[in-house]
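Quick illustration, no need to memorize.
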Amino acid sequence: MSGTTTAAALRRRAAGAGANRWVVLVVLCVSLLLVAVDATVLHVAVPAVTEDLKPGAVELLWIVDAYPLVCASLLILFGTLGDRVGRRRVLLLGYTLFGVASALAAFADSAELLIAARALLGVGGAMIMPATLSILRQVFPDRRERALAIGIWSAVAAVGAAVGPLLGGFLLEHFWWGSVFLVNIPLMLVSLPVGRLLLPESKGDGSGPWDVVGALTAAAGLFAVVLGVKQLGGGETGPGTFLPLVAGVALLAVFVRRQRRRAHPLIDLRMFARPAFSTSVGCIVLAMLALVGLELIAAQYLQLVLGLSPLETGLRLLPLTVAAMAAGLAGARALRRFGPRRMVSFGFCLTAGAVVMLTAMGGQDNAPLLLGGFVLLGFGLETTLFGAYESMLSEAPQEQAGGAAAIGETSYQLGAGIGIALLGSVMNGAYAPGLAQVPGVPAPASDAAAHSLGEAYEVAARLGGPAGEALRLAARQSFVHGLHVTLLVSAGLLLAGAAMALRLPRVMQCETAPGVPSGTAPGTPSGTTPTTGSGAAPETTAKAGPGGSPAQMPAPRKAAESRGPGLRV
């Protein structure tokens, strides 16, 4: 057996049976799958919930929004708490709360109880999401393996978002609406003991007290900002929208100022001074801004313009998810070959090209165009998100992994909310003028039709005759025009993201945590090295090879140990 092969085998054995890391990844991915599915599974159940519980308009809004609002606002709180008290402990508590809340939601007999259960689900989700990424950061100290693990993790997230509506529709055809929540319980009953047995415990350095006031300030600020952004995305522009936004921004400013003054902050804001970290966070926001707004508008186009059913719409959008899965699974190899800068920039440019291609959509169905556009869109966006998440997590110190993961997930949620608000406003601004003067249609009817395409169809049905048909045709044409304008704005934002990504490092530097050789077992004392014998291969670090692709070159031991974790250029 060669010296290199012997060293590799010994390092895998030193990792405590290398397969265990991948078993841990499976457990973490199941956790993420549940959270991702629960974020979208209720959408198809809203009509059944409305018929059964008879909620008011405000109550129905909170039934849908309580989960994402609470989850987004608490990510930093629980991410940093995991760094302090133990990430596995927070994750297991999140499992428990998620299971209890699922049971409460499934058997809720009033709108108020369902809202409370959805909020409790949000608490559980906020515990689970950053913990999965921070534990993944710990159990895969070798960046090359970690990149593959993050690729699988992100592919599972894409699956969960797509499976939610399909699973919900299947369950509603055979059971009552509560079954969309009840499916979580057996999975949580399995995940809790398995996670307790297999997941390693980890935490930060634990220096100084946990800043409870700062954590609550961040939670309140994020809740207010996300609430305001969601209301803005719904077209509300009154004081009830801007007051939460202003209050949220003020609270977050107080939080930032407090963290800068504390000797032991919740989040080391100096991470944002690292170009790779801050750029990765910005890329996540821009990618999600484009993705969520485009998915929302695309779903409306497929159903209201092309007349497809919800199931047909889901199937048409499925190639986007499949392409995203493929990009996530191929991401690790692409990152090693091309480096973060080229990979993320390419992902943005590919997505922008797909968006421009989709401007050819018109009033008639063009299935090949939609298929090609959605495949490129899904592959490009997932390539971008994978590269950004991996760079952000690798740049953060291991003791700050929970806080870094929480920042990434919060950026994801804020980007999604801002995308709906911004692109929705662009869409409405381009759509409404086309209905101002439709021949034979009264001004009040035109004003009502200008709110949305669905409302325009309702107004046209009430008018009937030539006027109704003229309004319906004008609304369809205006929507397609608004869609084209929105796609072009999205393309501009994506190209701005490609330019931003040029601040990322050119190559993927494969370094482990300080003093921990590649393949060292999670929990192995820092600075210890597995005995590899005389045939041990030297540690390697990625250097630019011919054509800019990374090539493995020997690196001196002391140099590898003296540099911190993450990217360096």
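The chain is about 75% helix and 0% strand.
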